[in-house]
């Protein structure tokens, strides 16, 4: 058994089980043996094989990302940031998903690049909501991440024939086939020798899955003790469409069909019935989330780019919603998402006290772990998994490190992440990803993005070119 000692960490975020919150400790030793933390305390005098000098470090638990799409988001760099449709309340989701289609080689390069970005921003656990590609399991295992594999399936697909309407192609049988395939895929991931992979049941969107399929997902989750994740209340378009179909909000419908539970995580539950842009007759969605123990995956960046925001992070938290963070967009930088969440919450609530660094840190660690049904992740205590991050306090952007969590969230972000361990294995060493070739992946993605751009007229409903949908920032 190999034991690693981080000697005299200048700062450390340790878990206080009696209070159920993180707490600062100074000049403390953190010891892990194989995949588990074995000791946290001053003046360790037991056995160790490797020693790391912690005097320049803030040691914290690895961050938990509960919502991401690594297989395509990086391919939208330069394409997505300013794209949206005014006819659809400024969301660009539907037009973009239809017009821009990345091929399989591109998806692989994209995932490799995203996994690297995630590790560099201190993410150790990743819920990866993606398509069932043949290389997926091996790649995420190789990255060193703790992978929560969420293979997507649905009973229908969206499409557009004009700028203002979303249409659906229903095919229950195809949805069922992919559901069966996803079940096999999750089992394959769970059998991977790394022992770091597990499955998440992922019916893709509340509006693209039939009630029967969603009910079967709930039954499977209970039978196999797996979490479920889906997209719900992610756009005004979706809210109105579900209200038209069922006469109630998407979350109320989810509640009625038994989808809400402590196993369930909704990305993104922004457009709930009480949201100021919805103006619905009820104001009960947030209580439905709380009463059912449903978690919310909060990914502020993509929505903020459309001009949208949750109202607000602090309100959900005070009500008792379990929140975690995700990166629903490139860059895959969970620390920047935490920063944006604080700022947007304050703007939406007009209240500086609504959300702070400790609240988002809680969500990005134990909040995420809870949504994935894990109590051994997101915290530094003896017995927890050895998923931990050393933040470099010598970086000028972190100094003065009077309050290292504030230095990290408001200032340094990924630039200050120096060393990352997952399952006790070194995966980021001195700011470099150990097991992935990010430069090579970026090169392959550049070529794949060109192919994707060339194919846009084939997929777009008006046969437009990419530059007519999402122009460059400056005239060329
Ligand atoms: Zn998403």
Features of this protein?
TIM Barrel; globular; 15 helices; single chain; Urease, subunit C, domain 1; 2 domains; nine-stranded mixed β-sheet; nine-stranded parallel β-sheet; binds zinc ion; alpha/beta; 476 residues
Describe this structure in words.
The chain has 476 residues and is α/β, with parallel strands linked by helices. The protein has two domains: 3-61 and 381-433, Urease, subunit C, domain 1; 63-371, Metal-dependent hydrolases (TIM Barrel, Alpha-Beta Barrel). 36% of the residues lie in helices and 24% in strands. It is built from 15 helices and 20 strands. The strands form three sheets. Strands 1, 2, 3, 4, 5, 17, 18, 19 and 20 form a nine-stranded mixed β-sheet that branches. Strands 6, 7, 8, 11, 12, 13, 14, 15 and 16 form a nine-stranded parallel β-sheet that branches. It has a two-stranded antiparallel sheet with strand order 9-10. Strand 7 (123-130), helix 3 and strand 8 (146-153) form a beta-alpha-beta unit. Helix 2 packs parallel to helix 3 (136-143). It starts with a strand and ends in a 7-residue tail after the last helix.
